[in-house]
Specification:
about 190 residues, Multidrug-efflux Transporter Regulator, Chain: A, Domain 2, three-stranded antiparallel β-sheet, about 5% strand, rod-shaped, disordered N terminus
Length: about 190
C-alpha cells in the first residue's frame, strides 16, 4: 500500500525541495527497503542520519515516514557511495545532499538571509522604540523632579505664611489678654 492513499497531517520536506507530496507517489519504509534490497531497519537508520542534518521526510498522522521518488533516489546514491567504500557515511550523506539539493540549499540560504534581514530590521525598529521609551522616561523623570521641587517650595511658602498668620493671631491674643475687661468694648 502506498502513502498516497493515506492522508498526511504533515507534509514537510527539507531544503524546500519543491516536491509536491500530494502529487508524487510516496512509499512506506518496507517498500523502499525492498526496492533497494536492504532491511527496513537500514532505511530507518539512513533516514535518521538525514534527519540529523535537517532533512525532513513526509509523515502521516501516526508520525510514520513516507518516502518520495526523490528520497529513494537519494538513498540509492547514498547506498552506491557507501558500498564503494570510497567514503565514510558522513561524507556520503554530505555528498548526496550537495548533489541533490545544491540549488535548493542555495534557495534555502537566500530565504534564511531574507528572514535574517527581516529579523534584523525588526530588531532595529524595536531598538529605536526602546531608545525612544528611555528618552521619554528621562523626560518624565525630569518633569517629576521639577514638579516635586515646585510642590516642596509651595508647601514651604504656605507653612511660612501660616506661621506668620498664627504668630500675628497669637500676638493679638496676647495683647488682648493684657487689656482690662472693660477695654474690650471700646
Amino acid at each position: 500500500m502506498s502513502l498516497q492513499e493515506i492522508p498526511f497531517t504533515s507534509t514537510k520536506l527539507s531544503f524546500e525541495s519543491g516536491v509536491d507530496s500530494a502529487m508524487d507517489k510516496a512509499y512506506w519504509t518496507k517498500e523502499v527497503a525492498e526496492m533497494l534490497g536492504v532491511k527496513p531497519v537500514t532505511i530507518r537508520a539512513w533516514a535518521l542520519l538525514y534527519e540529523q542534518r535537517g532533512y525532513r521526510f513526509l509523515r502521516d498522522d501516526k508520525d510514520r515516514r513516507g518516502f518520495t521518488e526523490q528520497d529513494i533516489t537519494m538513498f540509492r546514491h547514498y547506498q552506491e557511495l557507501i558500498n564503494s567504500k570510497s567514503m565514510s557515511q558522513d561524507s556520503a550523506i554530505d555528498a548526496v545532499i550537495a548533489r541533490h539539493f545544491n540549488t535548493s540549499i542555495a534557495h534555502s540560504a537566500i530565504e534564511s538571509t531574507e528572514a535574517f534581514q527581516q529579523f534584523e530590521k525588526r530588531y532595529n525598529n524595536l531598538d529605536q522604540k526602546v531608545d525612544q521609551l528611555i528618552e521619554m522616561n528621562r523626560a518624565l523623570a525630569e518633569r517629576l523632579d521639577k514638579q516635586t521641587e515646585y510642590i516642596e517650595d509651595s508647601l514651604k511658602k504656605r507653612d511660612q505664611y501660616l506661621t506668620q498668620v498664627l504668630r500675628g493671631y497669637l500676638e493679638s491674643a496676647a495683647q488682648s489678654n493684657k487689656k482690662k475687661w472693660w477695654q474690650f468694648f471700646k
